[in-house]
Write a structure and sequence with these properties.
Elements (H helix, E strand, L loop, with lengths): L10 E5 L8 H14 L3 E6 L2 H4 L22 H8 L3 H13 L3 E6 L2 H9 L5 E3 L7 H8 L5 E4 L5 H13 L5 E6 L14 H9 L3 E4 L6 H8 L4 E5 L17 H18 L11 H4 L4 E4 L14 E4 L10 H4 L20
Parallel strand pairs: 1-2, 1-8, 2-3, 4-5, 5-6, 6-7, 7-8
Antiparallel strand pairs: 9-10
Helix pairs in contact: 1-4, 1-10, 6-7, 9-10
């Protein structure tokens, strides 16, 4: 049985990333606000600058100058600033359990998986840039835990290969996240219409890892079948932080939780016709009524018969057949017009 799916409300993941700003207290506060906002999980990233890259100041290791958030930074220095120290993992996981939400992580190498296994991480997330690291995917899958694979930048072939690697290593619970790996991501490049395409192609649950501003895009994704929504979280965008510019604040996360569930509830079924809660409204459709007192022998005219609310009389379209006929008996104002009355 999969952890996420169309029969369950969207699972909300608050991504901490580097928004702890180098403070364990802030990291724990992010766990608290995620829980208070109704998130199902807090996610971190498990790496060090050394496990991600090497300290070389060469253009190959430098982010392009035009990048909106990290232009000109070298990878090693960025990862030094953004990483979550490994000694923080246990208190973060413990705080999450205390607050009744799950804590898990994106590992980036074998040593990260080893650490997370010691902490009994409930699942693993493969970051978009690691989707081609099939040995890492197989390692995570071999733990028997659910595997979530983000697909930013990936081709159909790469996505299929990643899912095949996970399932081939024994994963029975794989979820794929549609993702646009730009920070922030333009809404017009989010391509939510690919969600049902991925679902049909891969036959696994599909979610959304979203880096757009606000909650409009992730709420809309629910209509396309997204069963998991991941958004970055900050205590306050004004405080800065590597990802704060495109992260949700606590109130926005709360709204995401509420509105994504409302969107999921609204999907309903393919039934066309009155619902249970519409039945009262059916009584107040229009029908033909006598609107002034009439006597037997009077002619039916627009002045004494009109289409009004409620139901009970002839359908409004019968007015053409009724006009000019003769009343067969007296009728008081407010009497439904029926064929036996004329």
């Amino acid at each position: 049985m999969t952890k996420f799916g169309p029969d369950k409300r969207p699972y909300i993941v608050a991504e901490m990333s580097g928004n702890h700003n180098g403070s364990l207290d802030r990291a724990l506060s992010l766990v608290d606000v995620a829980a208070e906002a109704g998130a199902d999980a807090i996610k971190i990233q498990t790496y060090t600058a050394e496990t991600m890259t090497v300290d070389v100041k060469h253009p190959r290791f430098q982010i392009s100058e035009g990048h909106e958030l990290w232009g000109g930074e070298y990878l090693y220095q960025l990862y030094e600033r953004a990483h979550t120290p490994w000694e923080w993992h246990q208190p973060i996981f413990e705080r999450a359990r205390e607050r009744g939400i799950e804590a898990f992580s994106s590992p980036f190498d074998r040593t990260a998986v080893d650490l997370l296994e010691k902490l009994d991480a409930p699942m693993y997330k493969i970051a978009s840039s690691e989707i081609t690291d099939l040995p890492l995917i197989r390692l995570c899958a071999s733990t028997g835990k659910p595997v979530i694979i983000s697909t930013g930048m990936a081709s159909v072939r790469e996505i299929a290969a990643a899912v095949e690697a996970a399932q081939g290593a024994g994963a029975t619970d794989v979820t794929v996240l549609s993702c646009t790996a730009s920070y922030p991501a333009p809404p017009e490049e989010t391509n939510l219409r690919r969600i049902p395409v991925l679902a049909q192609m891969l036959e696994v649950p599909i979610g959304l890892s979203d880096h757009t501003m606000g909650i409009g895009v992730p709420v809309a994704s629910v209509a396309f079948g997204a069963c998991l929504i991941e958004k970055h979280l900050t205590l306050d965008r004004a405080d800065g932080g590597v990802d704060s510019a495109f992260s949700l604040n606590p109130e926005e996360l709360r709204l995401l939780r509420v509105e994504s569930e409302r969107a999921w509830q609204a999907l309903g079924t393919t039934h066309i016709g009155p619902t249970e809660h519409e039945k009262e409204g059916l009584r107040f459709r229009r029908s033909l009524y006598v609107v002034t007192d009439v006597k037997a022998g009077d002619k039916v005219t627009p002045e004494n018969v009109r289409s009004i609310r409620p139901t009970g009389g002839l359908e409004p379209d019968s007015i053409g057949l009724a006009l000019g006929r003769t009343f067969t008996s007296d009728a008081a104002k407010g009497t439904p017009l029926t064929w036996d009355l004329i």
